[in-house]
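Researcher: I'm preparing a figure for a lab meeting and need a structural model of a single chain. I don't have an experimental structure, so a prediction will have to do for now. The sequence is pasted below. Please return the structure as tokens so I can convert it later.
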Amino acid sequence: MGPRTSPVRILVVDDDPGDVLMIEEALEDSDVEKVIDVVNDGQEAMEFLRREGRHASARRPDVILLDLNMPRMDGRQVLGAVKQDEDLRTIPIVVLTTSNADTDIVGSYVLQANAYVTKPIDLDDFNDVVRRIDEFFGRVVVLPKHA
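Model: Understood. Here is the structure written out token by token.
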């Protein structure tokens, strides 16, 4: 397996501006080449993924970091919609949320999440977790090719 020839495209779906900022800073702190897009709720995430409206020129992400609890359309609904969509279902989705409830964990895997990660409270731990996700998807796994 050789090095990636293009940046990893990451879509962050989270309605908490503080969490988004911490995620972006942790991702930018690594040497994995990447492009980060951010949307603030599930409805906007689906518009982005389907290239609708103001997201008509959006590029398909290689991986999605998805919060569960958001307004308009929550992460569970996004997860279900993406994994049922023939064109989108191969995009890996990491649920990155504050919930450690068994129902959320099991429910996310039932909806075919690729991973479930609880957001740590401690800033250093939070940064470490996001960097590990970045390293895993940026260097370790082989992501599906797309147009």
